Amino acid sequence: MSLLLPDYSLILLLAVLLPLAMALCLAAPSIRRRVILLAPLSAVPALVLALAGPTGLTLELPWLLKRVVLSMDTVSRVFLGFTSVLYIASAWQARAAM
Fold first, then answer.
1. pTM of the model
2. What does the alpha-carbon distance between residue 8 and residue 57 come to, in Å, rounded to a whole number?
3. What is the DSSP secondary structure assignment for residue 25, as one 8-state letter?
4. For the segment 52-91, what is each residue's pLDDT rounded down to a tens digit?
5. Cys-Cys link to 68, which of 15, 29, 62, 64 (CB 3.0-4.6 A)?
C-alpha cells in the first residue's frame, strides 16, 4: 500500500463498517452526544469512494457470512453517492435537533 495512493478496499470496508459502528455507539447513553456530533462524518468514506473510487473494485471476505463480496460498478457508485449525501444530510439534521 502506497502512502500517496489510497487503498480503496480499505475505504470500501470503512464505507460499510463506520456507519454501523456509529449506530452501535448510539445505543450507549454515556457517549450518545459525542457520537451525534461525529455522525455526519461517518458517511465520508462512502462519498469519497463514490466520487473518486475506481470502477470494478471488488473486496472478498470469505470468513464473513459464508463469503461476502463487496464490489463497485457504475450503477452502485451512483447509488452509493446519493445514499451517502442523504446520510450526511440526515445526520446533520439529527445533530441540529439534539
1. 0.81
2. 8
3. H
4. 888 888 888 888 888 888 888 999 999 999 999 999 999 9
5. 64
